[in-house]
Structures are given as structure tokens and as C-alpha cells.
Amino acid sequence: MARLADYFVLVAFGPHPRGSGEGQGHILQRFPEKDWEDNPFPQGIELFCQPSGWQLCPERNPPTFFVAVLTDINSERHYCACLTFWEPVEPTQRAGRTGLCLQEAACSEDATEREEAAEGGRVGLSPTAPTPAGQLFAPKTLVLVSRLDHAEVFRNSLGLIYTIHVEGLNVCLENVVGNLLTCTVPLAGGSQRTISLGAGDRQVIQTPLADSLPVSRCSVALLFRQLGITNVLSLFCAALTEHKVLFLSRSYQRLSDACRGLLALLFPLRYSFTYVPILPAQLLEVLSTPTPFIIGVHAAFQAETQELLDVIVADLDGGTVTVPECVHIPPLPEPLQSQTHSVLSMVLDPELELADLAFPPPTTSTSSLKMQDKELRAVFLRLFAQLLQGYRWCLHVVRVHPEPVIRFHKAAFLGQRGLLEDDFLMKVLEGMAFAGFVSERGVPYRPTDLFDELVAHEVARMRADESHPQRVLRHVQELAEQLYKNENPYPAVAMHKVQRPGEASHLRRAPRPFPRLDEGTVQWIVDQAAAKMQGAPPAVRAERRTTVPSGPPMTAILERCGGPQATSARRLEVVRNCISYVFEGKMLEAKKLLPAVLRALKGRAARRCLAQELHLHVQQNRAVLDHQQFDFVVRMMNCCLQDCTSLDEHGIAAALLPLVTAFCRKLSPGVTQFAYSCVQEHVVWSTPQFWEAMFYGDVQTHIRALYLEPAEDRAPSQEAEEAPSREDERSALDVASEQRRLWPTMSREKQQELVQKEESTVFSQAIHYANRMSYLLLPLDSSKSRLLRERAGLGELESASNSLVTNSMAGSVAESYDTESGFEDAETCDVAGAVVRFINRFVDKVCTESGVTSDHLKGLHVMVPDIVQMHIETLEAVHRESKRLPPIQKPKLLRPRLLPGEECVLDGLRVCLLPDGREEGAGGSGGGPALLPAEGAIFLTTYRVIFTGMPTDPLVGEQVVVRSFPVAALTKEKRISVQMPVDQLLQDGLQLRSCTFQLLKMAFDEEVGSDSAELFRKQLHKLRYPPDVRDTFAFTLGSVHPPGRPPRATKDKGPSLRTLSRNLVKNAKKTIGRQYVTRKKYNPPSWEHRGQPPPEDQEDEISVSEELEPSTLTPSSALKPSDRMTMSSLVERACCRDYQRLGLGTLSSSLSRAKSEPFRVSPVNRMYAICRSYPGLLIVPQSVQDNALQRVSRCYRQNRFPVVCWRSGRSKAVLLRSGGLHGKGVVGLFKTQNAPSPGQSQADSSSLEQEKYLQAVVSSMPRYADTSGRNTLSGFSSAHMGSHAPSPRARVTTLSNPMAASASRRTAPRGKWGSVRASGRSGGLGADVGSRLAGRDLLGPPQANGAPSDPGFLRPQRAALYIIGDKAQLKGVRPDPLQQWELVPIEVFEARQVKASFKKLLKACVPGCPAAEPGPASFLRSLEDSEWLTQIHKLLQVSVLVVELLDSGSSVLVSLEDGWDITTQVVSLVQLLSDPFYRTLEGFRLLVEKEWLSFGHRFSHRGAHTLAGQSSGFTPVFLQFLDCVHQVHLQFPMEFEFSQFYLKFLGYHHVSRRFRTFLLDSDYERIELGLLYEEKGERRGQLACRSVWEYVDRLSKRTPVFYNYMYAPEDTEVLRPYSNVSNLKVWDFYTEETLAEGPPYDWELAQGPPEPPEEERPDGGAPQSRRRVVWPCYDSCPRAQPDAISRLLEELQRLETELGRAPERWKDAWDRVKAAQRLECRPDGHGTPGSLLVSSVPHHRRSLGVYLQEGPVGSTLSLSLDSDQSSGSTASSSRQAARRSTSTLYSQFQTAESENRSYEGTLYKKGAFMKPWKARWFVLDKTKHQLRYYDHRVDTECKGVIDLAEVEAVAPGTPTMGAPKTVDEKAFFDVKTTRRVYNFCAQDVPSAQQWVDRIQSCLSDA
Average pLDDT, stretch 988-1014? Predict the structure, then answer.
């Protein structure tokens, strides 16, 4: 029984002591006056009676009632029922108080506002009795304090007391209060009690059946009505995950109900944080407490809650829940979230299910509010049962007596439920509420309630009902019935009878204030009752305690829901087999299976299986293995543990823990190494939670064994959580429950004995675990302080203990002491100390929780350091002996093959090459062998970084893995630390990334010391960035000079080179070395400084007089002899050869120039005085004098003035290139005209010169020559000098209209520029190009690649010269129709954008680590992010634009940036697209030499070749150009003589620094170093090639690798490639890799030893099949599977060799085949291509795809071998001649015989009688007067001779049997000799005619 009410209190308004207008509550009376012993009087009641503050009120309010809740220091809740009514203030006090009040109101308005807001809801009816003006009313409160929550009884009782007072009933108030305080009610158990307070009243009190279930009345239903389902669910999750929840409402009763409802939903968990349903205004600062809470606050104080940043605010009146941004409420795990949501909606809105029915049933009866409340609670009860199902299987019984101690194994629960990732459940299990749940409900023997039944017996039903909503609803209603019955056990309750005051009674004048009660009377009644109670026996309700049912074990529940990912039985079989092989000593078998086992161990089931199998091989806790077995077992254990999280939720580490201390090997007599010393590097061992769970699990096992009868006992190693296999094997909880039941019946001695036994069990386990932990935490080599630095866990735990500041300081001091002092002892102690502290903390925690006495605990603390120290000593011996073990046979280091002249700098360091993000090498999604990781060594040579090794996966066999790249290509090097896949140790590693798209991610072997690794890095750095370009491999190769000193000429090379160098270097600075090291950015000295050499002692900044040496600028007709030498060598440069080919002027020895030529070659820059970065000879308009060029050059950046670099053969338009303009110059002129000032003359003159120069260019073009007279620039000077308005001369066509959307581009007919647009990302040019350029009247639809349908797309008055410039530079220039040139501003990207884009491209193609989501999507996304293809698109777009302009007859000047990056790219692409010559091998070489090398692309600077360029980084401008060429090559595969491999070869070697070709930044620098003409006079023998072109030539003679067999050009073809990003392909140069031999671009290295033919296997077995496996990313596909033509050429060579002939050159064989095919194609002798494919190919774009589809299938060689046929045109002899010039590149062979060959060629000869026709090589020799024949062209052995002296006649012949079918019959002729008639047949009629003529003329000569 319990008291209904503990205290009755009367609280009244009293003035504030400090005199402020607001009053405060005063307790007038309290009963009883003495505190109860068991329940002291709660403090602060007066605050809670008036939560909004005590204030006077101008009118009477109706009485109010609410229940506040106070929580005392013992977490006991006190319910304070408060009934408030108002009484008039007495007149004596009123005056003073009113003054105060009014004064207060005047000075602080917010108080009155608050008062109105708070009381506003309570204003009653209009007063019936008039109240005097200015009358004020003061509140008075009756308070009942109780520990029971009977709100209705309290309301009635206080109402009764008020009624007696107001109505003046004839009842003694003292008696009523006394009866109220002495009334007792039963606690629980569903009893019913009627009480009366002695005023003719009657009340019935019902107590709930089970007091553990909360009583909610209607509060939950109201909460859902106010807030809705989603909001309540989020509040529910917030309260469970310990967030702060604040309710707002204008009603106190609503606040109480909402808080009560939320608490009721949390059942069976109890809310243990701050809980204040009604918070008084004075205590609002409680809201900023850091702990979680559930608090209710009156809505009047909403403003005060605004600044709370981490509080979830639920507004009950508005129905909203506001979650701050910084708060994340984890939702319920799916599918529970959605299921709960749908059930709740069915309960709250039963109509919802019927809303769509055609014939809805008559209105369903909705449940009453009370019933709905219980149904909603039932839904949440089910939810908890589903969440916590099987929780009892994860309880650990740590102690049974004297009180049960239960712990919950959280990790196992999460693991078995498969909810590891679930944020919600994690937080709930870590919360305080759950800890309380475990200690309260974990007890095995206690009263049970509804939840216990539900979670044990109904889980299966709930799972079955999931998909049947009606069955779920039925279950909910059943549960709701039980909950309702619990609250209302007696439905037919007798009616209450309580008097109430009459209507509006509060408005009547009260007879008097509430009287003061007589304390004595009340106290006497209380005392009487107390005396009576003492005599009565204490009413103790006997609790029905039972064993709590555990329910189905969790494993079973999981299997029903499908379990974790199913593991195939086959995998488990593999694991079992491997282990049995290991223990049977079948090591080879085990080794084969090991990779499969390691892969299988990714699965949970396989890991469990491994632990079980290993258990079987342990006898008496020990298993001694030999070394190999030990290694295998340790590897498998490590593999298992590496995927364990720190929580070990699947119990893998727990299962292995006993094993790591069982498996061992003997190192030497008395020294044994256990497996634990090899599996320490896992995070799980440093996690305290893991050790605690393990400890409690083991303690439970031992405690269970302690109480089980010996008959039932089993091996104690049996895990307690395992499901019992037989019924009689009781779980630890059952055993504990039985013990608790017996406990009261035992004798005191027996109880003591059991307690001691249990304690000693725990104590011994603690010692055992201290040992275990020291095993796994102390490293084998304790001198290394590895533990502290790498085991984050230990460090963090230390910091958790003391305050952050001190700890971090202490830590840093300790660390610095360690690292600097170098004392080994200090470090050893440190490791030991850390471990001791870790173990002590563990021991403290578990022993305190398990109730170990403090004496025992002290003993443990003393033992731990000894245990650790002892273990360290044991380990020292083990460490020493393990060092003496014969090392594991590591693979032999494979030496890499080196180039001639390449030397090793650092010999092999043993490393492991790890897989990077490219998954093909590691097996990947495509399957295939795991070539990586591979064990081997890293070598550093003067040229490359090379890894060679073998894959660690034994399945891959004996493959050799090679990955290498040139040192010069290194772009990034970073240190990494890597967890090794094999033994899980952390190793230092290095990641090297190269711009040739190779990545070496490697971990150094432990035998490689950190100093060796550091030395490797330093040497690598030194080789990557040599101080001077002369130290690079290309220079040091084959030279005997020590690096760093310029090689002196060893022998005099004649006067030529000496005088040349002297003249050339005359103007150069002498300080080459310094200039290279100090200069960061290459700025050639400004023009004025170049006239004379600067004095030695001064820097660049000296001033030089304006007059230059006359010699530099004299017109070049009279040159000194030495200058002529210079000229002659300059003429031999590539550009001059090209200028002659283009007809742009020649440079005869007298340097006279033909006046008719529009352009001339000017030697003005022969000394590199005008522009350092230009070549020595330049093409300029004929009319411009050399000395004018000097002034023109000033207007351009880097003095790179416009020069002609190409002329169209058809339209005669020229292409010019220059740097961008300076501020002055044409653009500057058009932009602003300032008033003339005296110092402007120089600028004026140079601008004028510039305009004249452009005018001269325009005039030089034939079409415009006639108009040039009218369009002089004479008006410029006056405009410039006199006017401020911008001159309206030059037209500007802007090419950027960001508004033009792509959609409009597709539909509207658009000009040439349609596809050229400028948006920030994909832009380039704009869609609207200005009136002139685009032409308004377009005919026909545009073509797909943006080319117009009509070539006349520009207007008739098209400009003669278009200047393509940078948009930023040409801003503000006004267009003008008179001028003949037009500015085309375009947006271009800068070099730094290329650099950034390339970095991203590298990362996309060669990622350092596997992508988060593997697959093509992530690669494509990162490729798009790099914007590389967008830049390619822009380049192609601009180039096609320029090609169109040139093709239409306008000249173009490309004037972008400094004129050496993008300008070079565009100009080269334009020439390649416009001129077929540049698409041959020879032409492409010329193009690169001319535009890239001679015109000064800064290869060294962009490639960061030396130390000076290190900061600028690698910018692949040339590579980007090659990529563009590759894109064009893909679209026009028949237009290029060279293959894709040629482009990749150049792409690789322009950065490799193997050749000197791509070194240095300009011709000037190359001459300075004496590079340019060094070949003259020194004919080296077979030295390594210094020039890449020389290398290509040599290689081309041996193999057709650079040749494109599809080459069949159309002569007039100007290529217009598609440039949209969708048409571009990623170049396979970026992605392909050949691990068999490394990059294939160093040909000498790539050609490995040939494989023996399959038939001649050395083992003599039967010949195997000819097939071979080609692995992705290992074999080179082109080598393994060459194209048909290469294959046939190889076959030809092989057969020739077998026949003993000298093999023919491939080029000759190829040309011969082509010639033969040409014959086959023309049987009728006419030039029409009969069977040729070409005719059927569409004219515009003949791409590879079309070719192969339409090719004849049967023949091997007729693929596309016509080289000289274009669609429908005959082969002209002139074209054959042009073709032949390219073939001479290959056929520079020595003839087989040195004698004279007057005429030679192939003829078919009929053999002697009955012999067939055969093709032979015939040579007509006039000197010897004979016709010899050979088997083939290079055959040295003559097969037969026809003496011409014997010839009688040569006559036309006729085809005989067996003659070649395809040959015209006129091609046959006979030669009659005295002995016999020879029948011949030529390839075609003309050659037959030629042969006959030659033989005839020979005969006539004779």
C-alpha cells in the first residue's frame, strides 16, 4: 500500500523581496509540517505552481488545474497537482502594490505582455458582480504532492476542497485535508479501492495490473492528433537516440500529456535523462544544458527558444516539429520504418483502406480515443519486439550471486541482425536507456510482462504477418486489448460522486479569502492514521517471479529472412581441403589452393569455417607446427582478421583468439614462437570493447560450468551464445535463473561460498586476459616503438582518460623525447607502459563491473606490469631467434634489359608492386589472372625507372611482370604506407606517376632500409631534374665527357662549324649555366638589349642605345663569307626545304630574289637578333624591307611577328603565325587614341610599320593584288594622332555568343561557325560570328561536322586576311567595312588549363587506388571532369575553321598567346588537314621540325626537363597536338601514311629525353649547345641514334611498324574532321599497358626472345595446338596477333630464310604486291577500278569501318591495297611519281651487286618445257651486255643469264598455258635466241613496251 498524497500545500502570491513588481510564491501552509522519512518535501514547488511567474491580474480568471512533475535526486518522480484560483488583493496592501505594479508596467512592458499572453486563455465570462475600478486579483494555489500518478483523483480531491471553500459548504476543511493525506491505495496488481474524504464524496481508484507497463490514458492518441505520424516518429527516434526534445503549447495540461505520451511510446525502454513536462519561466536556462532532455515550455516563451541550436522543437498547437540543421535524427532501419508508418496510418485512419472502394461499407465504428491510444502503443510495442528480437541470446551472465550482473554483447547482436551499418540501432544500443533495459530486463528470474511474452513468442507470427495488413491490424488490436485491460481492469466501475462548484462561481464575490487551516487538527488525524498503520502487518504484495523466456535464438531468425550473402558450399570445401593439406604436409597442394582460400575468406561463413577447422587441430591447447605450416596458418588467420572491424561483430577474432595462443613453432631449443606474434597488426586487438565482450563471454562459460551438474558439464570452450543443440543443455541464463530461485532457500554459509567461488572465477579470468592482451599488444620487436604510433586505438584511449590539453602536451613532449634521444630503453618502457596502462584500464573496468573486491583489484594492478615485463623478455629471445631463421625463399631478382648506353644507377631494391586503380592487372571484373601484386625489384637507370618481378599469385605461373617509364616522364612522387596483402604489415611505400601513363605503386620490402628508400628518392629526383640539359640521358648517352661540362669538340671539324658557332653565339650571353638555373620563366631579353653583348659584370638590366649595329640590319644582299656559311647551313633546315616545296621563295647563293615572287626568304633573323625563338630564315612579303621587320616585331609578344608558314597550292592563300599583340599595335590603335604626346613617335612608327606589314601580306596574295592600290593605310597616322574616337577601320568578328543554346544550333541553318561556341566549359568560339564572316544567306542544310553545305558560305566581299586572336586581347575593337583584314576573337585555354586538365586525365586513366564504384561510369565521369576532350574539341574546331577560310581563298594569321603553344597546335593541325604531304612520314617529320622545333615550342620548359623548370610542372602541349592528330587519323584512316603507333611513339619519346630532338626551347638554344649542326663532318658509326628521326628511319627499314597499310590518299582531299566531343575517342595510348615487356616504344627492349614453334617442343611430346592465351594488360595484342599484312610479310621473310635466300625488304615486297594488285584491277587495260572497294566508299569520309565491312572476304591481300586510286579517278603518272618519293624513305638499300644495272624490274618468265611461269627479278646490264635474272630484288645470287649477243629478235608474244590470268595479252613478248625462245610477260602493257624498247636499244648499241 502507498499513500495517495504525501503533502498538501497552500501557496499564495507575495511581493518580490527585491521590490520588483513581479511577485513570487510563498508557501502559506503545508501539511504535514514534518517531512516523511521515506519522502522529504520537494523544493521549489512555488515555482512550478505558476510556471509563467506570479503576477496580479485585473480580473477574476476561472480556476485552472494541471499536474507538474518534479524529479528528485534519486530519480524519483513527484507529481504536483496544482489547482489555482484568484482572490482580490486586500485594500490595505493594494495601494502600495498597485503603484508598484503600474510602475513596473510602465518601465517594462514585456512583463505585462507575457502576463496577458499567459493568462489570455483563461479570461472567464463577463463579471456578474461589478468589481471596483482598479481592483486586482492575486493567484492562490492548492498543491497536492504525490509519488503516484492519479491525475483524475487529484483533480477531484482539490476540486472538492475548492468547492467547499467557494460554496461555503458545511464541511470542516481540516478533516478533508487530513483524510486526503492519510488515504492509502494499493500499488499495483489490478486492485480497486473506494475512498471518501468525508464531504459526502466517493471516488474509485483502480491500479494497473502490471506496474511495469506505463499508464497513458489518451495521451498517445492526442500526441498523434496534434503532430501527425511522421512528426511523432521523428520525435520517437530523437528521444531514443538521446537528442533534446522541447514541446511548446499554450496549455500546461497538453504539455504534460504530450510528455507522458512520448514516454509511454518508449516502453520497454525507460527515459533516464532530464524530464520536465512543465518548465517554469525562471528556469528557462535549463534548456541550454548539454545533456539530452524532454521538456515542455509554455508557448509564451517561444522567443526564448529560438536561439537553441541543437534542440528539436515540437509545437503542439501548430502541429509542427522543427529539427535544426546541425541535428541528424537517424531513422528506423528499413523495412521497419515503412511498415510502422503504414500500420500507424491504418490505426489512425481506418477509412483510408476503404476510401477507394466502389461500394464502401456502412460507416465503420471508430475506436474510442482511449482504445486508439492503446492501439498506437501496441504498434510501438511490436516495433520494439522486432528491433530487439533475440536480444537475450546476446546477454552475458557475469555474476549470479549476490546480485545478478548482466552484460550485453552489442557487436554480436548487430552482426547477427545484419544491422552493422544502421545508425539508429547503434545509437540506441549505446544509449543510457538501453543500459537500463539490460540491467532491468536482463535479469533471468523476475516478474514478466507483455513485452517479454511478445519478444519471446510472437516474433515468428509478426514475421509471417508482414505482408498481410489485416492480420497485422488484428494483432495490434489484440495487444491493445491487453494494454487497455491493464489500465482499466474493472470495466463496470462505480460512479464517482464529487461535488463541483456552480457555474461562474469564481465571478461571485467570495465570502472570504481561503482560510488558514488548523495545523494541529490535521497533524492529529495524520498521527492517528500512522499509529493504526504500525499495528497492521506490512502489506507486501507477493510478486510472481519466473524464468524469463529467451525466445528463438537469433541465428534461426536470420536464416528465415534469407541470411547474409549465401556462401557456396564449394568455397567452404576449398577452405577445409587447404587446411587438411597443410596439416598433412602436402604443401604444394596447399600452395595451389591458397589464393582461392584467401579469396573465399572474404565471406563470413568461410572465416567461421576456418576457425572451426583449426580448432580441430589443437590438442590440449597447443599445436606445434613446422615452419611452412606455421606460415600458411598465419597467412590465413591474417586474411580472416583483415576484414574484421574493431567491433568483431561476427565473432571471427573471438574464435581465433584461443587459436593464436595455441599454434606455435619451435625456433630453437627452449624458444617457441606463437602465432599471436604474427597477427598483431589488426585494429580489433586494440579495441577495449572487443576485449570486454570476450572476457564476459568467457566468464559466463566458466560460471555456467560452476553451477552445472558434472553430468551435464561440457567442454568449457563451448561458446555460450551458440544455440544449444539438445534440449537438456541449458543456457547460462537458465542456469542463473535456477540459482536465483534457490538463493533465498540457501544457508548463509552456502551463499558466502558461492559468492567467493564466483569472484575467484572472475579474478582468474582477469589474470588470464591480462596475459592474452599482453600477447597481442606487445610487438615482437619491442625496441621499435611501433605500437604507439600505429595503433591508434591505444593512443586514443590514453587521451580519453585525462583532459585534452595536458594530454596532448604530454604526448608531444614524450614523442619528441623518444625520437630525439634515441635511447632504446626509453622506447621499450614506452611500449610496455602503454600496454600496462591499457590492460590496467581494462582490468579496472571489468572487475568493478563484475564486483571483484578492491583488495583483489589491487593485487591485479601489481601483477600486470610483471606479466608485461615477463612477456617482453620472452619476446626478445623469440625475436632474436626469428631473425636467425633461414629467410623465406624470396623470388630471384630479375635483371631488366637495358638499352645500349643505359647504365644502372641504383641496383634492385626489393619491392612489391601493388595493384592501382586499373583493375585489369589485378584480375578485375573481367576476370583473368591477378598479375598484381607482384614481387620483384625496382631499378633506377640513367634513362628509366624499371620494375621487374613475378606475380605473387601462384596461379599466374612464371610470368614476368615489367613496368617502367623514363625518369624524365616522372610527374609526381609521394610516399605512402601500405598494408601488405600477405602478412598484413604496414610497409613504407612510394607511388610514382609518369606522364607516359604509368604508375608504380610499390611497397618496400622489410629488408630495404628507410635510408635505401630515401637514397632511391634522392637519386630519382636528381636524375629527373638535372641542373643542366647537358646532364640528361640524351647527352650523356655514349659520350665520354663527364656530365655537367659542355663536351668540347674532340677533333677539328673544319672551318665550317667553328666559324658558324662563332657567328651564332656572338650575340648570346656567355653565362649559359647560370641562365638555366636561375631563370624560372623564359623571357627572351627585350629587343633593344640584343644589339650587342652585355658586359660580363652586369645583369640583363643594362640599357643600350637605340641605334643598333648596322651589320645586323643591312639588307642581306651583301653578306660576309662567314655569314654565307651560316646561310648554307640554315638552308638545310627542315623549314627551308618545305618553303621550297611550297614555292614560297628560294635562297640562292647570291641571295638575289626574283621580283615576281610575292614572298621571299629573309635572313634577317640569322643571328637570332630579332627573335630568339624563331628560326634563322623567315618568309616575309617581298615588299617589306628587313630593317622594317625589326620595328614590326616590337608590337608582338616575345617579338614573334607574323611570318608565313604555309601556302595553299590551290587557292594560294597563306597561313601566317605570330605571337599575340602587345598593348600597342593594330589592336591598341583601334582601341584608344590618346592625345599626341612628344614621346609617342616610336610607338606610332612601329604601329604604322605593323599596318604596312599586314597590308603587304594582303597585297602579296594574288587575288588582292589589283585592289591593293586603293586600300593603303595612309589615313592611319592622322586618325591616330588627331582623334579620340576609336578608329572605324578594322572589322572585328566576335565568335562568342553564350546565349546561343545547343538546341538552336541543331535546328537553325548555321554558318561555318555554328558549332563553334564559347561557353565557359565546352566553349571555343561563339555561334554568332558577325555579319561579314558568317554570311546571312546560307544555302542548304549544314553538315554534321559544322562545315557549310556551300563552299561560298562567306560573302563575296570576304576579307583577304583573318586574324585569329585571343578574345581577351581583342576586346573593345570596333568593326569596320573598309579594311581588308578582319579580327576573329576566340576564347582559348591557357597552358595552365592544359596542365590542370592533364593532371585530371592522368588520375582518370591511371587512378592510384580502386574507384569507390568500379565500372565504366566512374572512369567516364572523371574523364569528363578532366575536360581534356573538351580542349581537343576546341583545337579541332578552330583548326577546321582556319582550314575552311584558307580553302575559300582568305589568308589567316593565327596570333594567340605567346605564339608557341596553342598557335603551334592550330597551325600544325591546319597544315596537316589541308596538305596531304604532311600526312606522309616524311611530311609529318618536316611539319614537326618546322612548326614545333624551329619555331620554338618550349619543349624543355613545358616538359620541366631541368631543375629550373621543376616548379612549372609538366604541360603536355605537344601531346595534345598528337592526340588531335590521332582523332583525325581515326576518322580518316586511309589518308595517313604513318600508323597510330608512330603517334604513340612520338608521344612517348618527346618526354623520354632519350633523343636530343625534343630538348631545349628553340633553335637558338640548340645552336648555343652546338647541337644543331653537329652531324656535319662527323659521320658516326653505329652509335646510338641521337635524333628520333634517324631512329625512325633505321627502324622503318627493318619493320613496317610505323607504316599504315590502309594508306590510299585522295590527292586533293582537305580533311574536315568532326570535332564534337561525342565524336572523339579516348586515345588508347593513355589506357593500354603491356606488363609482359613494359612500354613498347623502345623497340630494342620490346622484342623479346622468340617463342619456340609449337611443333618442336623440347620435351619431344606430341605437337600441341598452335593457340596461345593472350592476357589483357599483359601481352601486347599487336605483337600477339598482328594484322594480316604484317603476318604475311613475316611469313614471306620466314619462307625466304628457309629457302636460303636473303630476305627482301618489307617495303619492296609491299610495293610489288600493290603493283600486282593494280594489274589485277585493270584487266582491260583501262584505268577504271574494276573490283576495287574504293568505288563503293562514300566520297567525303572513307573510314576504316566502311572499308572492312565492304571488303572481299576470301582474299588475304586485296584488303585495300590500292595506294593510287581515288574514287573514280585514274592513277596519273605524276601522282605515282609523288608517291614514289615517299617510298624512297624505306628503300635506301645497297644493291646486291655493285656492277652497272641499266634497267631492272619484275618479269614473268615461262620455264623450260612443261615448267610453270615464274616471276623473276631481271637486270639488263649494258656493260656486260647480258640479261640476268634473280629470285628477287635483293638476291645476290644470279639464277641465270641470257647473253644478248645470242639474241636474234624480240617480238610480241601470246599467252600460253599457265600464264598469269589478269595480265593484258599485249604485255607478253618473246625473246628469240640462237638456242631457244624465252616467253616473258610484264606487269602491264607500258612496262612490257619499255622492256622491249630497252632490249632493242641494247641490241642496236651493240
Answer: 88
